[in-house]
Amino acid sequence: MTVAKPPMRDALVAAAFRLFLERGYEQTTVDDIVTLAGVGRRSFFRYFPSKEDVVFPDHERCLADMTEFLARGGDEHDPVTRVCDAARLVLRMYAENPTFSVQRYRLTKKVPGLRTYELSVVWRYERALAEYLRRRFAGRPDGTLRADVIAAAVVAAHNNGLRSWLRSDGESDASAEVDHALAHVQRTFTPGAGPEPAQDVEDVVVLVSRRGAPMWRVVQEIEATLDRRTD
Amino acid sequence: MTVAKPPMRDALVAAAFRLFLERGYEQTTVDDIVTLAGVGRRSFFRYFPSKEDVVFPDHERCLADMTEFLARGGDEHDPVTRVCDAARLVLRMYAENPTFSVQRYRLTKKVPGLRTYELSVVWRYERALAEYLRRRFAGRPDGTLRADVIAAAVVAAHNNGLRSWLRSDGESDASAEVDHALAHVQRTFTPGAGPEPAQDVEDVVVLVSRRGAPMWRVVQEIEATLDRRTD
DNA sequence: GAACCGGACGGCACTGAGTTCCCCGACCAC
DNA sequence: GTGGTCGGGGAACTCAGTGCCGTCCGGTTC
């Protein structure tokens, strides 16, 4: 929407993080921030509806991107794949500013108020995914239930990978971590493995398993078999 | 912990809800509440660390119950079953006061601040489940990932059933709703169906499936087969 | 040029949540 | 009695967030 981003907004974010890092979030007042940034107190709240918002300056934009990504088409793809790709949009935002993301992670880990705020943001992502899946699953038995569960699983997997990357101070491969986690979810929920069922392969898969084998091994085996067939 | 519950706490909750319902949450100040309850302002914050807490007076207790439930044993049961049972503890708390729960549901639906607060509470439940599963899955490949995903799925399913019940104004069968939702999750994640693998049944299961069949159907079929075998 | 106007910014005063400090009265021990 | 302390009350404070209004600045219109 806003084409030119006001430099004042960035100045406020920079000033805020400087202070947050050197004396802590709760020990920093909004007055401190605006004084350091050299602007009026009222202007802070023009750009950020609350003190917490300055810690997550780009989530609103990212949420809009995700909503748009899910809104425009994509119905020819597998729904689970689609929401996984949507989740990767969030990762991309984090990965664009690794040092910033790591600093923010350390902040949110320490400050309960920021954790809570982050939860509300994550919840909105999850709702966006769930709403999309509900549309795709409309009519199926337990459609909304499936949608909610898959959305929650995708978000949990994404966060698992993301946090693992953040804990490594941005040293590990963020995409690899999240891809691995999302693949796990996709393996659990995707009906059929391949992107498009190949036409010239056998129509039947036979699985032989020892009784009592863990289900995840069974699923893994089915996946592997299907993958081999579609090669 | 606290054996005798102070009547003052209940008086504050009652006064708060009367005012919240007749003029709204944000239109009610803490001073209004303490005036109606006939106590000092300071006493309110002695019992509730924040204004939001008065809306969820029993969650702290319930969270402690769940933590204790997961802490003491239960390791002979299937982990997924165990966390599903833990989730049912929360449902029980809601079901104990249906009218109160429905009123609170309507409040949290309208007031964003309360939604956020509720999220932080739900998050703590989810973390309790995830920590338990992480212990149970310790050593397995992707143990923490599986733990996080399953915990998220269980919470999502529980909330799906719970909300469905709350939207019915407490008229429907809460347990049935949640049981159905949790069964869905259990079907997705449980390694093997029966409680204990019987010793005198066949050691091998053969599944024949059409290529491209939805994974949930495949899993369902495996489950059904295993159930038949353990009868 | 002057008058006009709309948007960005600053200053101030206000509400209300949450905290700190201190008070009081009750109840108990000695 | 004196000395505890424990549950509660209350004044005063900090700070986030809001409303109102003033100012300044760039561009228009006459």
Can you put this structure into words, describing what you see?
The structure is a homodimer of 231-residue chains. Chain A is mostly helical. The first copy, chain A, has two domains: 44 residues, Arc Repressor Mutant, subunit A (Orthogonal Bundle), CATH 1.10.10.60; 166 residues, Orthogonal Bundle (Tetracycline Repressor, domain 2). Chain A is built from ten helices and one strand. Chains A and B meet through helix 7, helix 8, helix 9, strand 1 and helix 10 of A and helix 7, helix 8, helix 9, strand 1 and helix 10 of B. Chain A binds a DNA duplex (30 and 30 nucleotides) through helix 3. Chains A, B: InterPro entries: DNA-bd_HTH_TetR-type_CS, Homeodomain-like_sf, HTH-type_TetR-like_transc_reg, HTH_TetR, MftR_C. Chains A, B: This is TetR family transcriptional regulator. Chains A, B: It comes from Streptomyces ureilyticus. Chains A, B: Keywords: DNA-binding.
Structure in a nutshell:
Chains A, B: It holds the Pfam family TetR_C_14. The structure is a homodimer of 231-residue chains. Chain A has 231 residues and is mainly α.
The tally of strands of chain A reads 1
Overall geometry of chain A: elongated
Q: Rg of chain A to the nearest angstrom?
A: 22 Å
Assembly state (oligomeric)? homodimer
Biggest protein-protein contact in the assembly: A-B, 52 and 51 residues
**So, CATH architecture of the largest domain in chain A?**
Orthogonal Bundle
Task: Looking at this protein, list some descriptive labels.
homodimer; 231 residues; mainly alpha; Arc Repressor Mutant, subunit A; Tetracycline Repressor, domain 2; DNA-binding
